Amino acid sequence: DGELWVIVKDVDVQLLQYHKTSSLTFSIEDGPQASQTVPHVHIHIIPERKEILRKMVKYMMRSMSKKEN
Fold first, then answer.
1. β-strand partners of 45
2. Taking Cα atoms as reference points, which of 44, 43, 47, 56 lies closest to residue 20?
3. 27, 43 in Cβ contact below 8 A?
4. What is the pLDDT of residue 1?
5. Diameter over CA atoms, the chain
6. Annotated catalytic sites, by residue?
7. CB distance 5 to 12 below 8 Å
8. pLDDT reported for residue 59
9. How far is it, in rounded angstroms, from Cα 35 to Cα 45?
10. In the chain, N or C terminus with fewer CB closer than 10 Å?
């Protein structure tokens, strides 16, 4: 494994334990077409839980509804 991925896997374990979840989303951004906004490759590690996902979906639905009106 590359150095960056070794660090990511270590952070992965710590986030799973801290947030008491079993799922993470990884987003690797490298280049403008990948939505990279800073001039270096980086990885977002996002803990996922059902209740968080539900809140996000509700928020998105409300936001979309407001835009339509």
1. 26
2. 47
3. yes
4. 62
5. 50
6. 42
7. no
8. 78
9. 15
10. C
Beta-carbon count within 10 A of 8 CB: 16
Spatial separation of the C-alpha atoms in residues 69 and 62, rounded to whole Å: 11
**pLDDT mean by block of 10 residues, the chain; 69 residues:** 86 88 84 83 81 75 72
B/e letters for 29-59, b = 16+ CB within 10 Å, e = fewer, are beeeeeeeeeeeeeeeeebeeeeeeeeeeee
Paired tokens of 65 = 């509804």
* DSSP codes joined into one string, 45-63: EEEE-HHHHHHHHHHHHHH
Per the structure, the complete domain to which residue 35 belongs is given by 3-68
Residue tagged 């509700």 (tokens): 58
- Alpha helical stretches, state H, the chain: 3-19, 50-68
Taking the C-alpha atoms of residue 4 and residue 2, their distance in angstroms, rounded to an integer, is: 6
Token pair recorded at residue 67: 């835009």
